[in-house]
Amino acid sequence: MILVGGKSSRMGRDKALLPLYGTILLDKVLDTLRTGLQRIILVGDHPERFEGYGLKIYPDIFPGSSLGGLYTGLYRAETPYIFVSACDLPFASPSILRLILSLGEGFDAVVPLNGNYSEPLFALYHKNCLEPMKKLLDAGNYRIYDFYPQARIRFVTPEELASVGGSGSAFLNVNTIKEYEAILGRKNHGR
C-alpha cells in the first residue's frame, strides 16, 4: 500500500506527482515495491488523481492522517499482512523491503529503526493492528507509534538494515521545496 493522501501543505503541491530523475516520485516508490510485492493499492483523500495507474484506490476511512490511511489500507487488504510506504520516499530500498517482509512471521508489525527513530511508513503490519489503531483514531490520536505498546512489534535495527546495504537515506522523505531541491541535486540518486 502506498499512502497518497497527504496534504503536501509544506510543499505546496502534490508530492506523489513531483518530477524526479526522469519519472515522478510515486513511480519511484512503485518500482521499489514491485521488487517484493505482487499487489499494490493506493490510499488517499483524493483518489481521482491516480485513476490512470490501474491500481485499486481507496479513499481514507479516517481522513487527514497517516494512521488513518494505514488503517484504511489494512482494513481493505485482502491479505493478513500489508506493507505500507509513504509516497515521498525517493530512495526507498528494495533490499530493506525484502528484509522487512522476511521478518513478519509471529509479529503484528515489522518496523525499521533509523538511528533511534522508528520508520512507521516503510513497514509491515498485520490485521491484528486494526483494533488498537481504531481505538486511537476514535480517540482523536493520530500518532502511529502510539498503538505499538498493544502490538507485537519487531523492530529492525540499523545494524540489520546495514547488513542488506540499507542506509538512513532509504527513509529520506520530501516535505519542503528546499528538501526537494536538495534531492534533485544528489548525483548518485541516494544509492
Tell me about this structure.
The chain has about 190 residues and is of the alpha/beta class. About 25% of the residues lie in helices and about 20% in strands. The protein has 6 helices and 10 strands. The chain has helices at about 25-35, 65-75, 95-100, 130-140, 160-165, 175-185; strands spanning about 1-5, 20, 25, 40-45, 55-60, 80-85, 110-115, 115-120, 120-125, 155. The strands form 2 sheets. Strands 1, 4, 5, 6, 7, 8, 9 and 10 form an 8-stranded mixed beta sheet that branches. Strands 2-3 form a two-stranded antiparallel ribbon. It is globular and about 40 Å long. It starts with a strand and ends in a 7-residue tail after the last helix.
Task: Spell out the key features of this protein.
alpha/beta; 191 residues; Spore Coat Polysaccharide Biosynthesis Protein SpsA, Chain A; two-stranded antiparallel ribbon; 8-stranded mixed β-sheet; 6 helices
How is the topology of this model organized?
Blueprint: E1 2-3, E2 19-20, E3 23-24, H1 25-33, E4 41-43, E5 56-58, H2 66-76, E6 81-86, H3 94-102, E7 109-114, E8 117-118, E9 122-126, H4 130-138, E10 153-156, H5 158-163, H6 177-184
Parallel strand pairs: 1-4, 1-6, 4-5, 7-10
Antiparallel strand pairs: 2-3, 6-9, 7-8, 7-9
Q: Helical segment tally?
A: 6
For CATH, the homologous superfamily is named as Spore Coat Polysaccharide Biosynthesis Protein SpsA, Chain A
Catalogue the unreliable spans. Answer: none
The largest sheet is: 8 strands, mixed
Percent of residues in helices comes to 25-40%
What is the 3D shape? globular
CATH topology: Spore Coat Polysaccharide Biosynthesis Protein SpsA, Chain A
Proper CATH architecture:
Alpha-Beta Complex
H/E element string?
A: EEEHEEHEHEEEHEHH
> What is the terminal-to-terminal distance?
23 Å
Average pLDDT rating:
89
Q: Strand percentage, roughly?
A: 15-25%
Extended strand count: 10
How many structural domains are formed by the residues? Answer: 1
Rounded to an integer, what's the Rg over CA atoms? 16 Å
What's the CATH class label?
A: Alpha Beta
